[in-house]
Amino acid sequence: MAILGIVGSLLPSIANLALISIPINEAKIAFNRMFEFTSIEKEKEEGVSIDEIKSVSLTNLSFRFAGRSELFSNVNIKIEKGKLTAIVGESGSGKSTIGQILQRFYNFEKGTITVNNKYQLSKIELQSYRKLIGVVPQGIIIFNGNVIDNILLGATETTENIISFLTEYGFEAYFNQLPQGLATIVGEEGINLSWGQKQIIALARVLYKKPQFLILDEATSAMDRNTENFSMALLDKIKPNCAIFFISHRLNTLKKIADTIYVLENGTLSTTGNHEELMETTNFYSEYWQD
Fold first, then answer.
1. Where are the alpha helices (DSSP H) in the chain?
2. Which pLDDT value is given to residue 117?
3. Are 174 and 227 in contact (CB under 8 A)?
4. Boundaries of each ABC transporter domain copy (predicted)?
5. Quick one: pLDDT at residue 34?
6. CA 209 – CA 157 distance, rounded (Å)
């Protein structure tokens, strides 16, 4: 009985010792993330100032995350004003990473990125470059405030001008469906929005900026068919004044609007062309339409 009593008294302590490993492992992960953050080099901000983007060319681009195998190599992509350039491929193939490289969030390992057939991307003044680009990322953030607040993001604009913009681009019909229209409170303190509704707000937000280079990362992935058709028609409308880079795995949206489609698979670009040209060979894109 004495032995059983001793064992019974020790069990809670043994259990606590076993649980110690959990916070230790969590602390190790947090430390590693802090180390990665503090080791990030400061962005290079100085460089040549530009006031327009006519083209962006990726030549023999290769990339790997630190300590990992090469994600992709020998990537050659030409993005031009007046055209919608798309890239497709399996999840994890590196499509979104290319979009982040184009935003200068990551440094690539090999190759070059040239803007306007003249300037190396790394040699351009960071602020002047980012002023000219617009991005709809996969992870859309909706802030506490009304719909207009989430479009302007702190910019000063008259109510008449913002309504004129929304009407011109066709957004007003979508926002009028909300309980209080443009005055509807969204974010954590407001109504729950579907992911498709968030994407519409994000699209209005980026187009209000009137970018010359637009990067869209799965920007229509959660939209219903009518909303997606509206969005694609809108991209076709702005295309003459904007270079568009469209990252997507919803291939049906690209058939009519994409001027050039790049197929990223097995760590490189396997083929490129428009819909008709890609359907002539066996690749990730054509296999989708044959299923």
1. 2-38, 95-102, 126-132, 147-152, 159-169, 172-175, 195-208, 225-238, 275-278, 284-290
2. 95
3. yes
4. 56-291
5. 64
6. 12
pTM over 0.70: yes
Residue that is written with structure tokens 């880079």 in the block: 245
CA 143 – CA 159 distance, rounded (Å) = 19
The stretch 217-246 carries a mean pLDDT of: 94
Task: Say which amino acid occupies 97.
Answer: T
pLDDT of residue 191: 87
Structure tokens at 84: 């919608």
Q: How confident is the model at residue 3 (pLDDT cuts 50, 70, 90)?
A: low
**Lowest mean pLDDT across 62-66, 98-102, 141-145, 246-250:** 246-250
Sign of the Cα torsion 185, 188, 156, 174 reads negative
- Assign a CATH topology to domain 55-142+193-290: Rossmann fold (3.40.50)
User: What is residue 255's predicted lDDT score, i.e. its pLDDT?
Assistant: 86
Task: Enumerate residues 6+ apart whose C-beta is below 8 A from 84.
Answer: 235, 236, 239, 244, 246, 257, 258, 259
Whether the pLDDT of residue 269 is over 70: the answer is yes
What is the Cα–Cα distance from 84 to 125, expressed in whole angstroms? 25
Question: Sign of the C-alpha dihedral, residues 289, 283, 88, 271?
Answer: negative
Enter the tokens of residue 46: 């100085």
For the chain, what are the domain ranges?
1-40, 55-142+193-290
